[in-house]
């Protein structure tokens, strides 16, 4: 495998060690992501075979609902990623370990409180009413929700290990974890179709437990081998490390909340304005066109921490060259999105047959959404890498405030149907097409002042 990587790198004329490392992990990520895509697409017909359309819609809503609570890490995951990379870049191992310990113990404390609060809420909540579904599912949801919240609380802590791996230039780790999770989930659902009766409760438990087990295993492996000297220890928890991570993390935290409101509330909005069944075509069309995002993110992900390192070392020419290449690649991705939209009727027929009907206009709207977001994505990753995200934060926060009322307005007053929900999101993120490239230009040419340099 190493010989193959070296031959490909030589053919592409890749010389710098940093770019060689990025290209290696891009290729690995492509393999993992390809496997994940295949597994996830095979999972859909199996899931529709095991669950009813209503149950599947409820699970999609529930997944989005729980994802809202990912902001409880208060941005510490991304803060750790940047600060750990900066400390390693200048050889400050003491600070690197301090950042790891501080992040782990902070998130553990937060997650413990989150789980206790979720138990209290679950006891009093009428989940069938919240998800706008039949009362028959209420008993299953009452048992399922505490399990989901418990697994999610643990997941918030154990997924910090991926921030460490990524900050340490091991960029393909997330792709590897995603692939193992997708493959395990596919196998589990296949077994459910053979051994069990349709049950949202059983399905939800399996899907919640699998990623937790995988990441717990990775933590045990990492901290007993490669990262043994960074094992979280309460004596390395220090206020200055928390302030350093949190100072950057709070901006990521606000961005996370905004992203969740804009991108994860759509399913909930649809189920309230229409029905849980209406969530299914929306989710499947999003999953289909998001293939383009998966492909692009494979290439983009390594650049976050690599840009952090390069910016810390003032290697600006490498950054400029990398950004030019990423911008060119984004144009190819746009062409790919157009291709996906054009062949979507045949793709849907091959994927799940006539089980779900997806209007062409919905797929087109999804295509426009991904064209917009992937066009500014390279600049987004650059800003995240250098930690200059104040403008980013304001832009997403304003978009989040406008997204829900705008969605309701477009659906109710323009009769746009489910398409109105994704159109509202497009309108909210469109300003970033202008703002992010301008800020990148100012920063890389050392002309950034005021909000552009924060």
UniProtKB/TrEMBL annotation:
Subcellular locations according to the entry = Cell membrane
Q: How does it sit in the membrane?
A: Multi-pass membrane protein
Q: Which domain of life is it from?
A: Bacteria
Q: Which organism is it from?
A: Maribacter algarum (ex Zhang et al. 2020)
Bilayer-crossing residues are 26-44, 56-77, 98-123, 143-165, 177-193, 199-221, 241-265, 285-305, 326-346, 358-379, 391-414, 420-438
Q: Which UniProt keywords apply?
A: Cell membrane, Membrane, Transmembrane, Transmembrane helix
The identity of this protein, by name, is Polysaccharide biosynthesis protein
What Pfam families does the entry give? Polysacc_synt
Is tRNA-binding one of the keywords UniProt gives this record? no
Q: Does the keyword Transport apply?
A: no
Recorded GO cellular component terms are: plasma membrane
């Amino acid at each position: 495998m190493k010989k193959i990587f070296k031959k490909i790198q030589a053919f592409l004329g890749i010389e710098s060690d940093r770019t060689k490392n990025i290209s290696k992990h891009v290729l690995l990520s492509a393999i993992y992501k390809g496997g994940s895509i295949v597994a996830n697409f095979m999972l859909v017909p199996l899931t529709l075979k095991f669950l009813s359309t209503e149950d599947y819609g409820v699970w999609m809503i529930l997944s989005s609902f729980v994802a809202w609570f990912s902001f409880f890490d208060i941005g510490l995951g991304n803060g750790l990623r940047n600060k750990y990379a900066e400390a390693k870049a200048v050889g400050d191992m003491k600070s690197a370990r301090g950042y790891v310990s501080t992040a782990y113990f902070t998130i553990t404390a937060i997650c413990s409180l989150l789980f206790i609060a979720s138990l209290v809420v679950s006891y009093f909540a009428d989940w069938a009413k919240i998800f706008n579904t039949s009362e028959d599912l209420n008993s299953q949801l009452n048992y399922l929700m505490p399990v989901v919240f418990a697994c999610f609380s643990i997941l918030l802590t154990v997924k910090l290990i991926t921030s460490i791996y990524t900050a340490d230039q091991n960029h393909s780790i997330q792709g590897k974890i995603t692939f193992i999770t997708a493959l395990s989930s596919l196998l589990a659902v296949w077994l459910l179709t053979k051994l069990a009766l349709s049950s949202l409760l059983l399905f939800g438990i399996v899907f919640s437990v699998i990623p937790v087990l995988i990441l717990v295993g990775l933590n045990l492996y990492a901290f007993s081998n490669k990262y043994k000297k960074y094992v979280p220890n309460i004596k390395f928890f220090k206020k200055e490390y928390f302030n350093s991570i949190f100072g950057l993390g709070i901006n990521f935290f606000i961005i996370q909340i905004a992203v969740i409101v804009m991108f994860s509330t759509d399913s909930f909005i649809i189920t309230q304005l229409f029905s849980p069944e209406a969530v299914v075509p929306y989710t499947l069309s999003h999953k289909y066109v998001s293939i383009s995002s998966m492909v692009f993110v494979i290439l983009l992900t390594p650049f976050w921490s690599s840009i952090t390192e390069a910016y810390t070392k003032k290697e600006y020419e490498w950054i400029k060259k990398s950004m030019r290449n990423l911008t060119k690649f984004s144009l190819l991705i746009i062409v790919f999105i157009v291709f996906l939209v054009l062949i979507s009727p045949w793709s849907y027929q091959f994927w799940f047959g006539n089980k779900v009907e997806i209007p062409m206009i919905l797929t087109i709207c999804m295509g426009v959404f991904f064209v917009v977001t992937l066009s500014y994505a390279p600049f987004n990753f650059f800003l995240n890498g250098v930690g200059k995200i104040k403008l980013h934060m304001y832009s997403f926060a304003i978009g989040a405030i406008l997204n829900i009322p705008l969605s309701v307005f477009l659906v109710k007053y323009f009769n746009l149907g489910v398409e109105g929900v994704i159109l509202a999101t497009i309108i909210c993120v469109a300003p970033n097409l202008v703002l992010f490239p301008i800020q990148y230009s100012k920063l890389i040419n050392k002309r950034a002042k005021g909000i552009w340099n924060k």
